[in-house]
Specification:
Elements lengths: L5 E5 L4 H12 L3 E8 L7 H11 L4 E6 L37 H16 L3 E3 L15 H13 L2 H4 L6 E3 L7 H10 L24 H13 L11
Parallel strand pairs: 1-2, 1-4, 2-3, 4-5
Length: about 230
């Protein structure tokens, strides 16, 4: 009989979610990987998420469709250009156009539903409040509020069967620290994908904010970045 605790892990196939998955695995959880086709322009991230789930021996890898392209409002889901830079832009209070409206709220809601069916109390998400783009749904106060909502809005929470815990092991880590942690846990980062605007040949653009954060993280970690970039 399998008595291992189960964890639902939100997986985009990127550095952060893959490292969060590795941490959950290291802590002894049976992994239930959850990804989404949401009309994102960088849909090839789903191939990365599938490879990561297989690499870590996930019990199941589930891909759900929730077409946020029909809502739009983001450079990742709408006909809006992804901003490109030569270096990391200066921090501002303005939320970038790559923010997808309510994305983490939608994804976490699905994760809670699956966790409830699995009778799991643990959901892992790779949000980060240090090297991140200023998205409002990556902040610790957001995660705390959502956790409270999960207990109020689920049968298992109301009946006291399970108390949902949203695990954010990367919250206060820099990208370099995340990469070093992943290397320590045996992550193969060549499986991951970060670029918001890859070429038809599936090469990373190298100039979107996600690419720049990735390159900065690997450089500061002293680790070679295995991503394949377009020539700029």
């Amino acid at each position: 009989m399998n008595n291992r605790k189960k964890a639902v892990v939100l997986s985009s196939g990127g550095i952060d979610s893959t490292t969060a998955l590795a941490i959950a695995k290291h802590k002894g959880f049976e992994i239930y990987s959850l990804s989404f086709f949401y009309g994102q322009r960088h849909v090839i991230e789903l191939e990365a998420a599938k490879k990561v789930a297989f690499f870590f021996g996930a019990a199941e890898h589930l891909v759900l469709n929730t077409d946020l392209h029909k809502i739009g409002g983001s450079a990742l889901t709408d006909n809006i250009d992804v901003p490109k830079y030569n270096r990391l832009p200066s921090p501002t209070k303005k939320i970038p156009v790559t923010y997808v409206p309510a994305r983490n709220t939608i994804f976490l809601s699905y994760a809670i539903a699956w966790a409830e069916v699995l009778q799991s109390s643990d959901i892992y998400i790779g949000v980060n409040a240090v090297d991140y783009s200023g998205y409002p749904d990556c902040r610790p106060e957001y995660i705390e509020a959502f956790e409270q909502m999960a207990d109020l809005g689920t049968k298992t929470g109301v009946e006291g069967i399970t108390k949902i815990k949203i695990r954010t092991p990367l919250l206060n880590m820099t990208k370099a620290q995340i990469i070093r942690k992943g290397i320590e846990l045996g992550v193969d980062y060549s499986l991951t994908h970060s670029c918001y605007d890859p070429s038809p040949a599936r090469l990373a653009c190298g100039r979107c904010e996600s690419c720049i954060l990735r390159k900065k993280g690997f450089k500061e970690a002293g680790v070679k970045d295995p991503a394949r970039y377009q020539e700029i």
